Amino acid sequence: MHELSIAHSILAIAEKAAEVNSNGVVTAVGLQIGALSGIETGSLEFAFSVIRDGTRLQHAELNIELIEGEAVCLDCSHIFPVNNYAVLCPQCNSNAMKILKGKELKVVNITIED
Question: What is the pLDDT of residues 48-71, one digit of tens each?
Answer without folding.
Answer: 999 999 998 999 999 999 999 999
